[in-house]
Amino acid sequence: MAAPTSDTGAIKQRDADRTRAEILRVATEEFADKGYAGARVDEIAARTSTTKRMIYYYFTGKEQLYLAALENAYAVIRGLESQVDVDALEPAEAIRRLAELTFDHHESHPDFLRLVSIENIHRAEHLTKSELLPGLAGPAVEVLDGVLRRGREAGRFREDVDALDVHMMISSFCVFRTANRYTFQAIFERDLLDPKRREHYRRMLGDMVLGFLSQD
Amino acid sequence: MAAPTSDTGAIKQRDADRTRAEILRVATEEFADKGYAGARVDEIAARTSTTKRMIYYYFTGKEQLYLAALENAYAVIRGLESQVDVDALEPAEAIRRLAELTFDHHESHPDFLRLVSIENIHRAEHLTKSELLPGLAGPAVEVLDGVLRRGREAGRFREDVDALDVHMMISSFCVFRTANRYTFQAIFERDLLDPKRREHYRRMLGDMVLGFLSQD
DNA sequence: TAAGTAACGAACTAGCTAGTTAATTGTAGG
DNA sequence: CCTACAATTAACTAGCTAGTTCGTTACTTA
User: Fold this and answer.
1) What is the pTM of this model?
2) Contact criterion met (CB < 8 Å) for A121 and B118
């Protein structure tokens, strides 16, 4: 059952999981870097300790490999998101916490964001085929929904928006900051990811969402 | 001087400007649709009433053609933006007007947004080479800057943000809504561009920016 | 220990793709 | 009219790229 992962030293061991994982890791980088059409299967193979044949052995084709990389990236993010507990916080603080969590995630996972951008260029045609898509909406929205309800019941949040609206608002800010950083910097000569400005934008995001929610 | 644009009917006339413009139009669609690497010079040529050789005749190469399309798209948007006059409005109303203008522009120019996304995937390497880049920051920021100053002087806007911050905030929302529409819809089953929700989001954007600015 | 199977590697191929060559035609100025 | 040049066309090519073929090597199990 258990794969013989432990290596005996210099001798090349066989390890399916390891090979598969390595291909996936390199593929994620390559696709995130060059886009689907720009990525080269040969290049992915070259940056791997294995060969191109293995890519087809484990993933059957470029498109399936791309989808696997995309799904894997979503799985990683989702894994992080599911470890949230904001029930102890009062609504406003909970919202700020959730926003900052998104802020941090996006900043520390640029490859994920790049893959999402790329997938949007393709009008989500691959993601739509994914089998893990249904579970993707995930906890983020449910948690947010609970907090919003509490806030509304306490008479502190406006009534005319739902969890998806707020999620969209938070994502917008975080996604733009990292995904559109390059053209923004080229045009306005400001690096949105400059560490010196990080706290400024993090607070700005929270203020923005709460300023909006507590209106009316 | 004047090109013989008027056509005599069925006979094929020569017209450099027209040919160039047609290539650029089709190229913009193709690049926006498939990305830089995914776009095919042969395909662009095929969808034109001219031939591939003409693409090289007028644009010298795929990369220069892409840059021309990108620059042209920016020029169009900038042309629209420069026709703004919000000096007559009070600060809050002016901000809302500017936000709605961006909202409308982005919604009605999806190709532009797609090109921007694509250019960000490429880390703005082409845009950086562009000669019209310096003039691109343009009026949008200056106008915004004036409004913010007026608002601050009237004691109605917070002091700790500048025009670029607010511009970023507005762009975030508008860009996300159109550029990330596909993955958002795939995951959450909500079409951010559904006409039924248009007014909701348009008002939401204004409320968000003003709610933020009038805090503190 | 023999046989079967999973994991691996190198070389190959058919089709595509950006870019080119070279010849042709319309048009303006003399 | 006719000459020079701008605009246009069709066919070609060198190099690339996803996907394959076929054979080899380690590991498992009966």
Assistant:
1) 0.92
2) yes
